[in-house]
């Protein structure tokens, strides 16, 4: 019996995240534009009768995601202050493309444009209009 190899591989969807960074936005619609400009895909958006976003989720195509909502929401989660989120991509071109899309958005402050690091990664850092810190880079962690 001869051994054969397959030229096709099944591509599995990234696993469902089990750790979710969470951020609050004063203007959730502007926050959605920001997230989508980075490359996230909004997968859930729940508004209350008053229009306040009670809960929303955005997935990163490479795996993982972020939960977000309105800072106007009552309760501890609605009072989230600025947060920091690091988003990983394997492709340095994705870092540059995401930076090009977000740098012109209203209220976005560029802290560090795309650059190489001494640990062989490419990354950039920005602050969104609500003060949340975001970095997109190729560093996968140790």
Features:
single chain, 142 residues, alpha/beta, 2,3-Dihydroxybiphenyl 1,2-Dioxygenase, domain 1, 2 helices, disordered N terminus, Glyoxalase, Glyas_Fos-R_dOase_dom, Glyas_Bleomycin-R_OHBP_Dase
Description:
With 142 residues, the protein is of the alpha/beta class. The chain has a single domain (22-137), classed as 2,3-Dihydroxybiphenyl 1,2-Dioxygenase, domain 1 (Roll), CATH 3.10.180. The chain has 2 helices and 8 strands, in the order βαββββαβββ. It has helices at 28-38, 92-102; strands at residues 22-25, 41-47, 53-59, 65-70, 84-88, 109-116, 122-127, 133-137. A 4-stranded mixed sheet has the order 1-4-3-2, with helices on one face. It has a 4-stranded mixed sheet with strand order 5-8-7-6, with helices on one face. β2 (41-47) and β3 form a beta hairpin. The N and C termini lie far apart (43 Å). The model is unreliable at 1-10 (pLDDT under 50). It comes from Georgenia ruanii. This is Glyoxalase. Residues 27-135 form the Glyoxalase/fosfomycin resistance/dioxygenase domain. Pfam families: Glyoxalase (PF00903).
Task: Give the gist of this structure.
With 142 residues, this protein is of the alpha/beta class.
Tell me about the largest β-sheet: 4 strands, mixed
Query: What's the CATH H-level homologous superfamily?
Result: 2,3-Dihydroxybiphenyl 1,2-Dioxygenase, domain 1
Give the topology string: H per helix, E per strand.
EHEEEEHEEE
Number of strands: 8
Residue share in helix: 10-25%
Q: Beta-sheet strand percentage?
A: 25-35%
What is the class in the CATH system? Alpha Beta
Low-pLDDT parts are 1-10
CATH second-level architecture: Roll
Would you tell me which CATH topology applies?
2,3-Dihydroxybiphenyl 1,2-Dioxygenase, domain 1
The radius of gyration over CA amounts to 18 Å
Helix/strand/pairing class, anyone? alpha/beta
Protein name: Glyoxalase
Domain Glyoxalase/fosfomycin resistance/dioxygenase: 27-135
Pfam families: Glyoxalase
